Amino acid sequence: MKKAFVFPGQGAQFVGMGKDLYDNIPQAREMFERANEILGFRITDIMFAGTDEELKQTRVTQPAIFLHSVILAKSLGDAFAPDMAAGHSLGEFSALVATGALSFEEGLKLVSKRALAMQRACEINPSTMAAVLALPDETVERICAETEGVVVPANYNCPGQLVISGSNESIDKACEALKAAGAKRAMKLAVGGAFHSPLMEPAREELSKAIEEAVITAPMCPVYQNVDALPHTDPAEIKANLIAQLTAPVRWTQSVRNMVADGASSFTELGPGKVLQGLVGKIAPGVEATSIQAL
């Protein structure tokens, strides 16, 4: 009976996230206030009582989701006892802090730098992402490879749900071809840019130095990283995978399958939303999947 804990990525945010932790748990309040100091603005005001529009800004969204997830994990105390962990995209940073590989302060600084670097990369190369439903991964991969320009698989979310990423023009062409190939849907997403694609190279370059300089130690349990869907505890490997993550696809389907193969019998999602709980249910039907958003 192995327990897996998983951490959500961008898109799971909602106004009011984390407020009950702030109001009811002194340690959580201290961590939120420390975050306000580190970031140089009161992110808690936006998280607890801002607008959806304010919360959707990348520089706010990424630290907000990270904070909710990590502070929730710390607030669980001894009940947070993972045999393995993973996070979806941004959630990988939450997983590494929750399992002790990165300090809270260092993790938050990296997440904030990552958000700003991605924002800048989006401004350099206007680009987007699209969700593709009900096609085999191999078909999506083939059509991306055949489409002119930059368009690549970005998020392997679950069987029959793959997100592609690339330049606006190439995404439009690929969506047409995917629909013609039988996709139930090939729909552009309301995102700032082509995350997890070669167009994030400026962000990868900007962030790599900060990750190289960060103090990363062995986590309390293996962390299955997005880049190769494999378990890692070696700090040098963890760093290399974190750097590669920005321009490489999120292999979530493969990560969950590998965790189940390695003995995971329950998955608990920590943080806003229930997206990963739903994806685990589709990837590994029959495996217990729950989510915790508040204590």
How do you describe this structure in short?
By secondary structure, the chain is α/β, with parallel strands linked by helices. Helix content is about 50%, strand content about 20%. The two termini are about 25 Å apart.
Structure description:
The protein is an alpha/beta fold and 295 residues long. It is globular and about 55 Å long. Helix 13 links the parallel strand 9 and strand 10. The longest helix is centred in the middle third of the chain and has 21 residues, at 104-124. Helix 2 packs across helix 7 (104-124) and helix 5 (58-75) runs parallel beside helix 6. The strands form two sheets. It has a six-stranded mixed beta sheet with strand order 8-7-2-1-9-10, sandwiched between helices. The chain has 13 helices and ten strands. The model has no long low-confidence stretch (mean pLDDT 95).
Q: What is the topological layout?
A:
Blueprint: E1 2-7, H1 19-24, H2 26-39, H3 43-49, H4 52-55, H5 58-75, E2 84-87, H6 91-98, H7 104-124, E3 127-133, H8 137-146, E4 151-158, E5 161-167, H9 168-180, E6 185-188, H10 201-213, E7 223-224, E8 231-232, H11 235-245, H12 252-261, E9 264-270, H13 275-283, E10 288-292
Parallel strand pairs: 1-2, 1-9, 2-7, 9-10
Antiparallel strand pairs: 3-5, 3-6, 4-5, 7-8
